[in-house]
Amino acid sequence: MSETVTRNPKLAWREIDGETVIISPEDSHVHELNETASLVWKHAEGQTLDQLAQRISAEYEVSRETARADLEELLTALGEKQLVFVAPDSKD
Amino acid sequence: MPNTPVMDGLIRKTVESHLPWSVHVDLTYRCNERCIHCYLDHQDHGEMKTAEIKNVLEQLARSGTLFLTLSGGEIFLRADLFELLEFARSLHFDISLKTNALLIDAERAKKLRDLSVRKIQISIYSAEPEVHDAITKVRGSLERTLNAIRFLQAEGLNVKIACPLMKQNLMAYRNVQALAAELGVPYVLDMTITPKMDGDMSLLQLRSSTKELLPILQDPSLNPKTCSPDGTQAAAAPTGSATSSGIESRAFEDIPCSAGHNSCYISPYGDVFPCVQMPVATGNLRQQKFEDIWFRSAEMNRVRAVRESQLPVCSKCSIRQYCERCPGLAQMEGGDLLGAYERACDLAELNARIAGLVDPVSAMHAQKSGSQDLCSIPTTHVATEVQIGRI
């Protein structure tokens, strides 16, 4: 079973010089994502973890395993801040 | 937004790269109140249609705008307001609204929550209906506005009260403070009354004199430069401009404000200005692309080139640190974007006096009185422990 990533639809965001600024409307909290996290954020919507890991692997020339491990760590951090949701793919 | 080091860094970055980070769009000048101090012409002279505004929003999103403030006039008079909000949400803007809230009911409050509107600023002139309603010229308006605030709060939305102060409601700031505390919402007191957009100066007679403002500026609950009677420092001052972009920052350094640097204003007719309070026409979105106006308009670049250290009079002023000069008001009231203007000088002198200076004189007033030398002579400062109440 693969998992699908969605951005929290309530958030406001823009990319500035390759980095992403995200505003949470409830508490006006400002989040900044670095270049790598921004790449994930930009392509995350509706993608499976496998698809995202493949993109990171290609972009940063790392193995799929390394990309997948880093991705899971990043998505856990983003999930704890309610910036993304990771759910089982409904097609599975 | 909270002024944090992260925000300062982002503001610096957007100013340096001239990113239009914060844009204020008036969707209409029509209004269902007739506030006595309002600077607008409420007739509809051909406001942008739904598709035109959507096109503008798309251009802004592409240009990097994050903070979008929708205002008027009264925005809820636009039948397409929620359609525009949904569209803005799909473009991932951070959305703030300015409204009198008369048309907000429980259902609309829920819709605003569903659309993740971050902040709703609502004007209240007094907690006393007879004072508030006399300013809006709509009987029952305070009660309706307060009901709307409760609907919005019930949905967990962030409400902020804006209270423009003028002769008619000057001391009402105390009951507005109490009302805000009771509702549990932040508030801002705005002492700025501006000329009408067509240049009519008649509204300025509604302004309180600096003498009348003295007790407010000395109020320890408002002014962090003053101390309460027991010597404790007061909280940050909730005074400011209810019309500003809301992004104040140390990152601006030698530039007067955000106008034209990382923020601008768009009228219901598509006219682009550096700020709602700066009548410098830079282009029209019905004829030009936003990026062409923002980056290439000669007028926008003229505003962008202004540096406080190069202002002919104000740069020589010994009480600059007490001044909240607005370049737009300098243009409107003094006719010169780079010039000094009477109200700012009066208020700077008042603020300096409150801070403990003896007979502070602004550079403009020194020039007018013929004492040119005063411009470069620091005003005497009495001991800093002198309390306001003893002056």
Provide a brief overview of the structure.
The complex is a heterodimer of chains A (92) and B (391). Chain A is of the alpha+beta class and 92 residues long.
Describe the structure.
The complex is a heterodimer of chains A (92) and B (391). With 92 residues, chain A is of the alpha+beta class. Chain A has a single domain (3-82), classed as Coenzyme PQQ synthesis protein D (PqqD) (Arc Repressor Mutant, subunit A), CATH 1.10.10. Helices cover 42% and strands 28% of the residues of chain A. In chain A, the strands form 2 sheets. A 3-stranded antiparallel beta sheet of chain A has the order 5-1-6. In chain A, helix 2 (49-60) crosses helix 3 (64-80). Chain A starts with a strand and ends with a strand. Helices cover 32% and strands 10% of the residues of chain B. In chain B, helix 2 (50-63) runs parallel beside helix 3 and helix 4 packs across helix 6. The longest helix of chain B is centred in the N-terminal third of the chain and has 14 residues, at 50-63. In chain B, strands 6-5-4-3-2-1-7-8-9 form a 9-stranded mixed beta sheet, covered by helices on one side. Residues 224-237 and 372-391 of chain B have low confidence and may be disordered. Chain B is built from 13 helices and 9 strands. Classes of the chains: A alpha+beta (92), B alpha/beta (391). Chain A binds chain B through residues 9-17, 21, 23, 25-26, 28, 30, 32, and chain B through 1-2, 4, 6-7, 10, 13-14, 17, 19, 64-66, 92-95, 116-119, 156, 158.
